[in-house]
Amino acid sequence: MLNRFWPSPRRPFESLTEQEVLALAISSEEDDARIYRAYADGVREEFPQSAKVFDDMAEEENEHRRRLIEMHKRRFGDTIPLIRREHVRGYYERKPDWLVRPLGIEKVREQAEKMEEQAYRFYMAAAAKASNADIRKLLGDLAAAEKGHSSLAQRLGLRHAPENVRAQEAETERRQFILTYVQPGLAGLMDGSVSTLAPIFATAFATQDTWTTFLVGTAASVGAGISMGFTEVASDDGVISGRGSPIKRGLATGIMTTVGGMGHALPYLIPHFWTATTLALVIVVVELWAIAFIQNRWMETPWSRAIFQVVLGGALVFAAGMLIGNA
Predict the structure, then answer these.
(1) Measured between alpha carbons, how far is 226 from 323 in angstroms, rounded to an integer?
(2) DSSP letter at 181?
(3) Parallel, antiparallel, or unpaired: how do β-strands 11-12 and 88-89 relate?
(4) Under DSSP, is residue 11 helix (H, G, I), strand (E, B) or coil?
(5) What three-state secondary structure class fits 151?
(6) What is the pLDDT of residues 74-99, one digit of tens each?
């Protein structure tokens, strides 16, 4: 909750020096090589040929790392600053293989394709800000190497016919829509629907005054929407992560946070307390099921886990609000 107001301290990418950019690239290549090795080990028994592809990709990352270290030694000496992904605001993150297990060929293929695209974005942004010609050339070459990789589907021996190009473009567009609108909007809807339950229902049961409850609910919803929106804008500029415009993401988060809270605040415009409370509870149930549906439809979260998360979380917050209100 505190992270909403005080996000974790990270350096903006634009503030990095050329030495720090090289150090970040070196640590990123080291991490990617380890991940590809883990993918290879995870699929080796069932897909030995695909495992060899991931072994080769790990070797490519190690070669990139070697070239980057040589450039750093020529330009800045032997001491490489410690800077990693988690130190840079808006930089893409990597999921360790143990978080995506059990490993299947489709899952690792999707993750590897995403890794290549993110690495390309990083090298393009890094090359654009480099002033030294040699560093700029190296970063540009590495960007071309990431972009120039032949289709991973082909490398893994999967079907990839020309007629599938449109389908791939549509999937790319869908993924971008999810990253820019659905994911931030879902986070906002969850925060607005769940976090406002306690203050609204605590006020309702403490005062049994519908107008006061409506005012508290409106204040909580609008305040949370503004806070969540600004936090989303400040957390990631979208250049490296590829998540899209921070303004669009901030608006999606802020609006959906406010909508989530106002949904069960609006019934308290009804003067009769129990009628308003009953309607608010019905709306809460609809909101929680809507969140579970969006998680399942767009985020590919299994129904059982989605329902468990939103229903359990909502029930706990509602119970806290009711107990506090009746204290």
Answers:
(1) 28
(2) I
(3) parallel
(4) strand
(5) coil
(6) 999 999 988 887 888 767 677 666 55
Going by the DSSP 8-state scheme, the letter that residue 46 receives in this structure is: T
CA dihedral of residues 318, 191, 259, 324 (deg, nearest 10): 30
For residue 195, give both structure tokens.
């976090």
- DSSP for 83-133, written as a single string: --GGGEET------GGGSPSP-HHHHHHHHHHHHHHHHHHHHHHHHH--SH
Identify residue 89 by its one-letter amino acid code. R
Contacts 24+ apart (CB under 8 A), 149-154: 149/116, 152/109, 152/112, 152/113, 152/116, 153/109
Q: Which residue, chain included where needed, has tokens 């009711």?
A: 322
State the pTM of this model. 0.55
Residue 40: CB atoms within 10 A of its CB come to 22
**pLDDT tens column, 105-146:** 777 777 787 888 888 888 888 888 888 898 899 988 888 887
Provide the CA 26 distance to its chain's centre, in angstroms. Answer: 23
Distance of CA 310 to the CA centre of its chain: 19
CB 220 within 8 A of CB 204: no
